[in-house]
Specification:
Structural class: alpha/beta
CATH class of the largest domain: Alpha Beta
Oligomer: single chain
CATH superfamily of the largest domain: Ribonuclease Z/Hydroxyacylglutathione hydrolase-like
Largest sheet: 6 strands, mixed
CATH architecture of the largest domain: 4-Layer Sandwich
C-alpha cells in the first residue's frame, strides 16, 4: 500500500476479549505513517479478527509503522506479541514492567495485596484469590516499550496529536488528543456507558506507596474538562460526543458514591471490607478485587476531603466520619 497521504484517516478495529467488559477498540491513524493505538488481547481469535479487519482497510500488519498503547491492561497490549519485533512501541514508563511481566516487580504483588487485605479486614476465606491475582496477564504481552512517552510529547506522523497523561484507571494511562479536530483517542479514560474503575496497583518499581487511583482519575477528568474535545474514540463502547456533560455526570456520580459511604460511617465506624460489603451487597463476593478497589477509592477521596478519619493503630484499619 502507498502510505503517502495528504490527509488523515482514522479507522476503528473492534476485537473480541474474554473479559466481562466485552469487545475492545483499537485505532489505526493513517497519515504519512500508519500508527496503531492499542493492540487488543492475546488470543488467536483476536489476532485473526485484527488481521481480517486490517485487510478490509487495505492494510497488513507489516504496514504498521508504530504502536502507541494507552495503558498496560491485557486487552490493550496483548497482540503485540504477535507483531513484528521491529515495530516501535510507545507508552508510559509505568506500563513497561507490566508489559514485560517483570518478575522482580510481580514477585512482590502477592505480599503487597495480602498486606492490603489485612489492612482492609478482608475475611480469610478470600485469601486464596491472591494466588490468581496476576492470572489475567496470560492474555497480555511479554514485550516492552521501545521508548517512553509522557505529557506533551508528540510522535512522527501524528502532526496535530499531543500525548496527555491521564492516570486513574491505570497509573500508566495516556490519551492522544488531535488539537486540529478535537478528537480524543481515550483508551478507558472516558467511556459512554460505564465509569472506569480506578484500579489499585502495587507501588511502582522504586516506590514505597501506592498511587491514589481515584484521586488521580478525578484530576484526569478535570484535565479533560479543560480541553476542546469534540468527540472521544473510546477503548470500549460507543463514540462519545457529549463530552462536557458526560464528564460532569462522572463527577456527580463520584460525589454521590462518596456521600453514601460518608452517611454509612456517620452511623458507626467500619473497616474498608465492611464498607465494601455495604456498597456492593450483591456482587462483592464475585468481584472482590474490583469492588475493593472502588471502596479504597472512596476512602482515599473522603480522607483527601478531610471528611473521615483513619485509625491505623492496628489492623484492620477503621474509618469514622469526622475531620476538618
Amino acid at each position: 500500500m502507498n502510505k503517502v497521504s495528504c490527509k488523515q484517516e482514522i479507522k476503528q478495529i473492534t476485537i473480541p476479549t474474554p473479559f466481562a467488559v466485552g469487545d475492545v477498540h483499537t485505532y489505526i491513524i493513517i497519515t504519512d505513517k500508519v500508527t496503531l493505538v492499542d493492540a487488543g488481547v492475546k488470543t488467536m481469535e483476536a489476532w485473526e479478527v485484527f488481521q481480517r479487519e486490517l485487510n478490509k482497510h487495505g492494510l497488513k500488519v507489516m504496514d504498521i509503522d508504530q504502536v502507541v498503547v494507552t495503558h498496560h491492561h491485557p486487552d490493550h497490549v496483548g497482540l503485540l506479541d504477535f507483531m513484528p519485533s521491529n515495530i516501535p512501541v510507545y507508552g508510559h514508563k509505568r506500563a513497561h514492567p507490566w508489559m514485560t511481566q517483570d518478575q522482580r516487580y510481580f514477585s512482590m504483588h502477592e505480599t503487597y495485596y495480602k498486606g492490603l487485605f489485612e489492612q482492609m479486614g478482608v475475611e480469610q476465606r478470600f485469601y486464596p484469590l491472591l494466588n490468581a491475582i496476576d492470572k489475567p496477564l496470560r492474555f497480555s504481552c511479554q514485550r516492552g516499550l521501545t521508548s517512553f512517552i509522557g505529557e506533551g510529547d508528540r510522535l512522527e506522523g501524528l502532526v496535530n496529536w499531543r500525548i496527555l497523561e491521564t492516570p486513574g484507571h491505570a497509573s500508566s494511562h495516556l490519551v492522544l488528543f488531535d488539537e486540529k479536530s478535537g478528537t480524543l483517542i481515550g483508551g478507558d479514560m472516558i467511556l459512554a456507558d460505564i465509569s472506569p474503575n480506578p484500579l489499585v496497583e502495587p507501588p511502582y518499581v522504586g516506590e514505597t506507596t501506592r498511587k491514589k487511583s481515584m484521586l488521580e482519575y478525578i484530576h484526569s477528568i478535570e484535565k479533560m474538562k479543560s480541553l476542546p474535545i469534540t468527540r472521544v474514540l473510546p477503548g470500549h463502547g460507543g463514540i462519545v460526543e457529549n463530552v462536557p456533560e458526560l464528564l460532569e455526570i462522572r463527577l456527580k456520580q463520584q460525589d454521590k458514591r462518596a456521600n453514601k459511604v460518608l452517611k454509612f460511617l456517620k452511623e458507626s465506624p467500619a473497616t474498608a471490607y465492611e464498607i465494601c460489603q455495604f456498597l456492593f451487597k450483591s456482587v462483592y463476593e464475585k468481584q472482590l478485587l474490583l469492588t475493593l478497589s472502588e471502596t479504597l477509592g472512596q476512602i482515599d477521596f473522603l480522607l483527601d476531603k478531610g471528611l473521615i478519619i483513619e485509625d491505623a493503630s492496628s489492623k484492620p484499619y477503621t474509618y469514622k466520619a469526622g475531620g476538618d
